[in-house]
Amino acid sequence: MKITPLSAVLPAALVVSALAAGCGGGSGSGAGGASATASADTTTATAITRGGTLRFGDTVVDCADPHQRGNNPSSYQLKPVTDSLLAQDPKTGRFLPWLATAYTVNDSATKFTFTLRQGVTFSDGTPLDGQAVADSIDAIVNKLGAAASLPIGYLNNYKDAKATGANTVEVDFSKPNIAFLQGTATTNLGIVSEATSKLSAEQRCAKGVVGTGPFVITKFTPAQSLAYKRRADYQWANPLGKNRGPAYLDGLQIVSIKDTSVLANSLLSNQIDAYSVVLPQDAGRIDQSGGHVYTTTNAGYPVAILPNVKGTIFSDPAVRQALQIGFDRKQAISGVIGDWFHASTSALSSTTVGYKDLSTDLAADPARAEQLLDAAGWKKGPDGIRVKDGKKLKFDVTWEIDWNATSSVLAAVKEQLKKIGFELDINLVPSGQSAAIYKSGKFDSRWVNGYTPEPDTLRAVLAVDAGNWSNRASKDELDGLLQKQVQQVDPTQRNATLAQIQQQLVKEGYLIPIYDWAQSFAVSSKVHGAQLLYLSGPGPLYSDIWLSH
Amino acid sequence: MRLAQAVLVVWGAFTVSFVVLYLVPGDSVSVMLNAGGGTAVDPEAEARLRADLGLDGSFLHRYLHDLGNYLHFDLGRSADLGASVGHLIGLAVPPTVALTLCAMAMSVLFGVGFAVLVSRWPRSPLARAARILPAFGNSVPTFWVALILLQLFSFNIRIFPVTGQGTWYAIVLPAVTIAIPYGAMIAQVALDGIRRAQAEMYIMTARAKGVGATAVHLRHVLPSSLLPVVSVIGVNFGTLLAGAVISETIYSRQGLGSLMQTAVLQRDLPLVQGTIVVTAAMFVLVNLVTDAAYPLIDPRVRRAAR
Amino acid sequence: MTRRARRADRARRHAPRPLGARIGLGLSLLVLAVAVVAALFPGLVAPHDPYEIFQGHNLEAPSGAHLFGTDNLGRDLFSRVVHGAHVSLVAALVALGISFTGGTLLGLLSGSGGRVVDATLMRATDLMMSIPSLMLSLAVVAALGFGTINVAIAVGVAGIAAVTRLMRSSVLVVARSAYVEAAALSGASRTSALVRHVLPNAFTPVAAYVALDFGASIIAISSLSFLGLGVKPPQPEWGSLVAEGRSFLDTAWWLTTLPGLVVTAVVVAANGVFLYFQGATRAAA
User: Fold this and answer.
1) Contact A348, A538 (CB under 8 A)
2) What is the pLDDT of residues B188-201, one digit of tens each?
3) ipTM above 0.85, yes or no
4) Which residues of A have a CB under 8 Å from any CB of C?
5) Residue B67, SS3 per DSSP
6) Cβ-based contacts of A261 with chain C (< 8 Å)
7) Of the partner residues B38, B82, B249, the one whose CB lies closest to the CB of residue A206
């Protein structure tokens, strides 16, 4: 067993500090206006005032369980109530102690132990102990199951979790799963009380969960209203937070606004104090009014087109490769979405631990793309779209309607692809329908986005014996690499494997990344202290936020 | 007799919506399992869930099963939100009722008022021009009007809040939006009724007797213009409810309209069905009320009924 | 009816309408004509391709180069509105076709089919009319799926009940009139009496309703598209153009306002035609 004191993960620090130099993300790249991070928050000069309720505008979640809802911006609404075992420093990738003061991982990444911090209590008064943590994790697999679709991705091959002492807990896997470690630093695996762990999925949705977090739910009506008040006895804040004690805010209120296009005006007319998912045309206005738009690139795999290689034009690698370099990513997104979204430079976003810069391989080269297509037998037809053996070079991109991404980027890509002879069809389907379509295999490609910061999602999605979203027929070198990375405990080794994986994906065109997804968090001039932590899942550190009057 | 007809209509709404939605390819289960994001799909869990919800029976079996439930006021569970459909609708009905009643009041007030004014001075140039206005009330798309009103009166001139609920005046903009087409129709009907009444003998008699024009207008013309309005209010209640879908969505109000819209977007079939049946029931109720009110207002009908 | 009486009757029915009404009709027909031409030959009316992206010209206000300005991708809004006319108006015509074919058949059946048939169909239409048309359309879209064709079908189906009612009452009025009795007496079959006498005469009020329903269909289809149930992006359609422009009201007002104005203008024109015919019907009454 390799003991890993939290203060000395040097190799990782070296690798990731190089990342920090290159990546544009961080907790405050302003958009539109010229404000830099520092200007919005001169806490040293202004005295922090306690009190007040932060009004966050959004469609209220239909389910108050952070284990069952983790998408952006739902996670903004559910973050306040739980804490995680560890926290991950976005600048270095190091794991920092939070609810767990120490952790160990065995060499085969099948056994994880955590030593818990003393004195932590859930909001119902029960203590945070080994049993509670074990139950919390176990419930995800054995009680929630498929309903906890995000956290369960971290618990692949889960065997059991048990308390090995009053304050220690051990989680075992039947096969290596290093991804679990990063999972424990996300809200998706936030720790809930024993009482909550006993409830069914519906009950947890309807009532919410009991956690150790800085806030407690006071009112929840699904899809209608959600309100929190702070816990006065909170003393175990996120290590990355500046406030070590209870939250400065008295409470939080989710103001039900279903129409996202009015969020900006609601902020500007002081009807809400904050919201997420800022539109590019509003960023300038918000900055000018004295407010601020916090942005950060999310970790995970980028917003991408994922080709179905079975029975479609994408079964030909030349077509995939031509698509990969056939259009200019920067041009496709410029002016269409906010300038805090950056064109992808790899199969993982630039802030992901393990990211490898492949911008040269993704540089637009339509001339070369056309050569590839010509050589593969695709000749331009009378309408400009290429044809081969009577079949058009046409493909659809399918996704579900309630996903938080715009189709405008695809419209721009479509126009560019027309020039080299591709025809792209946008196929937006109602909720619940995409699963059936993907299962039937009757689609050309999917429009996807990494849903957690962990690079293991690439394996979950692409490995032949896992999701196999691209419908590859048999395992090959890529699968070997995908399997290997989840077993590697040493970050340097793992990053090397991840680098190889990204290279393969880009070269083979199994993933056509377009842009790195970024969070945005807009606040009015009254709100201070916010920071976005993209490695823990979307949402700010609420205990740091304070309101001026 | 009327009541029996009403029940028949509601039953019909249930059947029609059941049949229509039965034809849908995907079903609630896939919606439920996709609600959280992520990738995990467990075929066993799916089958189990489907059996639990009773979605694996034959058409007739499911129809009778659902009908039985409805008769016990169990409208099923929302596929997407997990809560009981009855509960969700129960929460949605009061705001929609408030909205439609408010809009109805505005429409009647302004529609009838407009008609009375225009017909009092029929030869004035303003009246002549104004007389064609009601016809255009139906021409403006509700969604466009709602956006313009929201922009002007909530963001530019900050009178009303952006979310159409919470305070009492938050209902104004949403109500005005849907009152426009409805009010236009009422104005037209009222104008029509007034014109007919003005031609009646008893009006000329009153004028001949020397009663002032305005008094005649108000005491004799007005009541008779209200009759066609009352009969039309019920039948066209659907316009208000349809407008509510758009209005509630744009003004972020809770209600049957926005519930229906979310349900359709999420393909939440039990919820769609429940909303249709409840809407039909509301419509039927409003018509029963107006049918009962008619004889109370029109003495002629009352006398005939005796 | 004597020949003289019939001639007088026809003369009264076809008396010239007042000047104001005729100007109104003229304007309305003009607007509709432009809309129809734009719908049928969008390529002729629109200066640009509706999907063409003018790089670097995002969100430009209306100008000489771009009559209605450009959208957030840099596409010419005027061209998109013109091509949107094609989608919206064709869909409205499809919806109208469905409403009228279905409604006419059912109305004829109901009005002339005997008491039981009539009663059943009347209850059925009562039922359909008790569900607001937009909600009924939403339900149909929930069943069929998104897309303009489905939206058109949904709106068409929702409109059948009203036409049935209208047709039925016209049929009832005419069926009892003199010519049909005369035809029946002279030995003509019921069907031929229906087709040769009832149908043509029942049609006048129905024709007026066509104009009204055309406008209503346009609004219904745009509303459903606005709610996100209609065209697939990036295809333009009036309702979805207004929806796309929604978040730009403060920063690019033309994106929502101008398409909305166009919809209003066309529907006003359709209603203007309806008013004219309604006036004509009233004069003949």
Assistant:
1) no
2) 888 777 777 777 65
3) no
4) 259-261, 264-265, 279-282, 285, 331, 335-336, 401, 407-408, 410-412, 414-415, 425-430, 433
5) helix
6) 246-247, 249
7) B82
